[in-house]
Specification:
single chain; alpha+beta; Alpha-D-Glucose-1,6-Bisphosphate, Chain A, domain 4; seven-stranded antiparallel sheet; 3 helices; 7 strands; globular; Polyketide_cyclase/dehydratase; START-like_dom_sf
Amino acid sequence: MHRYDLIDEAVLDAPPAAVWDALVAELNGAARWWTPKNTFTPGAVPPESPGGEMHVGVHPNGAGKPGPVLRFTARTTAVVPGERLAFDYVGGVFRGRAAITLTEAGGGRTRIAMHFVAEPAGWVRVLAKVKDVGLEHSRGTQEAFANLNALLARTPAVVS
């Protein structure tokens, strides 16, 4: 049985509040930076709220392109606004949990980290025997973090 315990992180050139806003928007379906690999559809309760849900599609070949889609449902278990979101994977091709944390990195920058602890379920359990699903998860997460950094660099700061 494969079990993944992965931590992916990056330092982004934006303050935590901007990163939090972009994260919440993405998990609510904005499709601005985690795509083309991942797509998110919020449930009846938004994912940034305790008990919220989101339906995730992982598109190894890119959203809208031919190929498999790994689908699973995440339920929010903990929220510290501006700092942390934690989820349990409760349905679909993964069972486990994840947490995304944001910490001040100095100079108006933010360290973002995703801790993914899960086991494959269903047909992904078979796929994991021939494909390094953990490596692909980390590659996709690192690509998303780079996309987020580039997006935030293009987004003008709002002056209050």
